[in-house]
Write a structure and sequence with these properties.
This is Fe2OG dioxygenase domain-containing protein. This protein is α+β, with helices and mostly antiparallel strands. It has one domain: Jelly Rolls (Sandwich), CATH 2.60.120. The strands form 2 sheets. Strands 1, 2, 3, 4, 5, 6, 9, 11 and 12 form a 9-stranded mixed beta sheet that branches. The radius of gyration is 17 Å and the shape is globular.
Length: 236
C-alpha cells in the first residue's frame, strides 16, 4: 500500500532544507495572511486546477525548472536512482511538466485537526499523455525534510480509486471522502530523509500533528509518476 525507502542521511536532509530556505524569495504563498502555507515549484493540483486553460502551469513549471535544477539536481538524481532501483524501470523528468517541488507549512499553518482533503491523486487527468501511457500505473511520492515536533505523516484507507468509481456508480457514496465510513484508517508517521511511495489511487490525507510548538515546520518534497511505454515520467 505504501513503501518507505531510505534516501537521505540526517545531514543530507538538513542540507536540502537549508537550500529550500535559501530560496525563500521564490516561495509562493497559497492562501491566508500572513502567508504560512507555501510552495517552491509548480504543483499541478493547484496551478492546473485554478487556471486550466491559461497555460499558467506550463509557463511557471518551465520558468522554475532552471532554478530547481541549479539547487537540487543532486536530489533529483538521487530520487531518480532510488525509484529506478525500486521500480525496476527507468524514470525521467519530462521538460514540459513541472519538476517535483516543495510543500512548506510554517508554524501558523501546521494543523492539529484532520482538515486536509481526503482524496486520490488525479492530477494526471489534466494532461495529454503520449501513446503507450498506462494511467492505471501511477505513483506518488513524498520526501519529508522536517516534521513538527509532535510528528507528522499520512492517513491512508484501504480503498482505491476503482473502489470509489464502483461505489459512486451504485449510489453508495457521493464523494471520495465518503469511503472513510467503510474502510479502516491507517496512520503512517513520517521520518525525515525517507522516501514514501504509493499509488496515487489509494485514498489518503495529510495527517494532522498532535500539537504545535514554537518554530514547528512541515517541509516535504512531492512528486507523481505515470507509466509511459517503457519508463516512468515524474512530475508535480
Amino acid at each position: 500500500m505504501i513503501t518507505e525507502l531510505p534516501l537521505l542521511t540526517a545531514d543530507g536532509t538538513d542540507g536540502v532544507r537549508a537550500r529550500v530556505h535559501s530560496l525563500r524569495k521564490h516561495w509562493i504563498a497559497r492562501g491566508g495572511e500572513p502567508p504560512a502555507f507555501l510552495t517552491l515549484g509548480t504543483p499541478s493540483y493547484l496551478d492546473v486546477a485554478e487556471r486550466p486553460e491559461s497555460g499558467h502551469y506550463q509557463r511557471h513549471g518551465v520558468a522554475a525548472r532552471p532554478l530547481l535544477l541549479e539547487h537540487f539536481q543532486d536530489l533529483y538524481d538521487l530520487i531518480g536512482k532510488t525509484l529506478t532501483e525500486h521500480l525496476g524501470a527507468p524514470v525521467r523528468y519530462p521538460d514540459h511538466l513541472a519538476l517535483p517541488g516543495f510543500h512548506i507549512w510554517l508554524e501558523a499553518a501546521v494543523f492539529t485537526r484532520p482538515q486536509a482533503p481526503v482524496h486520490f491523486d488525479l492530477q494526471y487527468q489534466a494532461f495529454d499523455w503520449p501513446p503507450g501511457t498506462d494511467t492505471d500505473r501511477l505513483l506518488s511520492f513524498t520526501l519529508p525534510l522536517r516534521v513538527p515536533a509532535a510528528g507528522g505523516g499520512l492517513n491512508l484507507w484501504e480503498a482505491t480509486y476503482q473502489d470509489f468509481r464502483r461505489s459512486l456508480a451504485r449510489g453508495w457514496v457521493e464523494s471520495a471522502a465518503d469511503l472513510q465510513r467503510f474502510h479502516t484508517k491507517r496512520y503512517v508517521p513520517y521520518t525525515p530523509g525517507r522516501l514514501y511511495v504509493h499509488s496515487g489511487h489509494v485514498l489518503h490525507q495529510v495527517a494532522p500533528s498532535r500539537s504545535v510548538r514554537a518554530g514547528d515546520e512541515r517541509l516535504t518534497l512531492q512528486g507523481h509518476g505515470v507509466w509511459c511505454a517503457d519508463h516512468w515520467q515524474l512530475y508535480w
